[in-house]
Amino acid sequence: MKFRMRNSECGIKIKKFLVLILFFATCYLLLATSASASEWSGVDETVVEKYAQEHGRVAREPFINTDQGDLLLFVFLLAGAVGGFAAGYYWRRLLEQKPKN
Amino acid sequence: MIKIRKLAIFLFFIFNFSFLIVSYAYAMHISEGILPLNWAGLWFLIAAPFVAYGLYRLKKMSAIDISFKPLVGLMSAVVFIISCMPIPVPTAGTCSHPCGTAMSGILLGPVISVLITAVALLIQALFLAHGGLTTWGADIVSMGVVGSFAGYFTFRLLRLVRANIAVSAFMAGLFADWATYITTSVELASGIRGNSPFLPLFWKILIAFIPTQLPLGILEGAMTSGMIMLLYKKRPDLLVKMGVVKSETV
């Protein structure tokens, strides 16, 4: 009985601790988002292309340019869905092969 | 009361997670046309033997062991998804992505990891406007070759000194990520410098990567450690077969 009490007390403390961490994480993210006020550009833009441009090298349009409007969103979504399906499928196959003993 | 608390925790998670899916963006991939052709060609030449040997190893391993193919399939999907998954870094206000090559390097061996990275990079360059065909060789070298070998050797070295599996995998992920971006800095600085000296430009680019890649390397370490530990729990026999752990430790 005593042991159970300790366990539940410990559980409540962990939950409180988790809520506190999540609260601070949320505040931090909100502050950081408003402070940085950037567009969350990739480092390819903020570093790679920036320094390349400074040295006279400019990125060319890709051979198949899907970076047009929402088309890129669509291909990223499609790639994520296909990749996720493949990962799930092979994960299941791996677990099915698990030896019995 | 408990239900409300659970709901609150769940909402907090969703809210925090929503910051991670703000927008798509790219990271270590060097875009089309950034590197001069002579440098692009050189990186191709460096990458080609690794890719060719990876093909040979894949064919050989698949013929020996049937459980190898699903693992290669899983790792290919994982590397592909991870390397086009943008993660906002609030401390820097930018996005970047982990590479996933440490986990594939540890599980499949570094040369097969180079091969699957090359395939992932090719698909991204062709259809996701992510990287480029002329810079494919440079991207293979930084993410595939250096990332996979750095992850593999870090893991092996730490296991050799009897470090914990989770810790070894974490450090492997961390170093693979950082090594990838150091290599990207080398490739970029050497390619674009013209008549300027190499080292100042290299340091400038590397320092610019640090605010984003420092925390992302830690995330990559955690992801690598999580994946290796998950497989260690679910399929320890497979890790023994792949030489990741010794049978006595299972």
Quick structural overview:
The complex is a heterodimer of chains A (101) and B (250). With 101 residues, chain A is mainly α.
Task: Report on the architecture of this protein.
The complex is a heterodimer of chains A (101) and B (250). Chain A is an all-alpha fold and 101 residues long. Chain A has two domains: 1-37; 66-101. Chain A is 72% helix and 0% strand. Chain A contains three helices and no strands. Chain A has helices at residues 2-36, 43-54, 71-96. Chain A is flat and about 65 Å long. The mean pLDDT of chain A is 79. Chain B has a single domain (31-249), classed as Arp2/3 complex 21 kDa subunit ARPC3, CATH 1.10.1760. In chain B, a hairpin with a 4-residue loop joins strand 1 (87-89) and strand 2 (94-96). In chain B, helix 2 (37-64) packs across helix 5 and helix 4 (101-108) packs antiparallel against helix 5 (110-127). By secondary structure, chain B is mainly alpha-helical. Chain B is globular and about 55 Å long. Chain B has helices at residues 2-18, 37-64, 68-82, 101-108, 110-127, 136-160, 165-192, 198-234, 236-241; strands at 87-89, 94-96. In chain B, 52% of the residues are buried. In chain B, strands 1-2 form a two-stranded antiparallel ribbon. At the A-B interface, helix 1, helix 2 and helix 3 of A face helix 1, helix 3, strand 2, helix 5 and helix 7 of B.
